[in-house]
């Protein structure tokens, strides 16, 4: 039987009375436990970029080191960008030994499918200029169909541009054609390129998030829109990952499919009912990764926040920044939260209700809860770094440098020395070249999101 709990931690249990509008932080943690032998079958949908770039052979680290030892690679400038040139007489060998991302993807799909059970279902949708469902809700043990689907992905006959919206639309149509209960659902999106239909893709992603279906994203290389993929994951309760080496795909996809089996509750949401004159200014996803979540639409003070799926023993957490009104001394309820979810079989679980109750006192203690202070310090470092990257992208070198240097100081104070070192290196690159290279940008964005993860 699935057991869920909703735990609230307030930045202050009492606030000053008669002092005007104030800020109150509420940390909402959801933790669950269930019997693994009661798991429902899983339906995993893999949405894969099949644009031409996925079929370009890439030398892995071992092959590149070998070329360096043989003196077969040297750095040259191409259009002002440093690139590695391979000796002409070895190009045929490199092409033969190097593997394209699509080849690694084939290995990843085969390996991840082995993690699924015979009663699970696997769907694969390829996208480029158009989308095509190469595998529709089939058993992962159907080797013939699986190999045929992998061959189609590697061939990649879906056009030359990269449009994600048709793939998301095909995913929604596929899910609509299946029974709404009986399966836990998980979507994994993989892309290595710049999608041309960002706004339309985001609209479809919001639709999936509203249905509390987790969308995990994997960005490969340095040319994809990391903020778009992060937003997909944050608003739906999925994971967002970044890899530069396609040989990492099998392990990463294996982890994602494994998470699907850890689901003990699905279609989770947090219903919020605000007291009069209480407003939500910001919602941050704290765990499993740090990111900003769109504030839900409120009607008569009521709104809902989609949480996606809840995994076994994994603490998911969100931080609500409230603007609370002035009051005379007394005890007031400012917010009611209600956790709603289904078990893996699709049956509704008993709702869990919690109230945010605060005492307004003329001599309230001004000290903040130490647990919330620790989280807010890490959130501040994350914001500084994001602001710096935005300023650098806009050409504000001086402003970005100041923010990066402030972030380095914060990270050192937090004991995050490796991340501080990476941030300092980005600051140095910015001062020397006037910009931060794409790989540094993505490395910092993804690493900073892990500042609040459990350790």
TrEMBL record:
Q: Which residues cross the membrane?
A: none
Q: What Gene3D superfamilies does UniProt report for this protein, alphabetically?
A: von Willebrand factor, type A domain (3.40.50.410)
InterPro entries xrefs: VWF_A (IPR002035), vWFA_dom_sf (IPR036465)
Region of interest (Disordered), residue spans: 426-455
Composition bias, Polar residues: 426-443
Q: Name one Pfam family in it.
A: VWA
Q: Which residues form the VWFA domain?
A: 43-256
What is the name of the protein in this document?
Answer: von Willebrand factor type A
Q: Which organism is it from?
A: Herpetosiphon aurantiacus (strain ATCC 23779 / DSM 785 / 114-95)
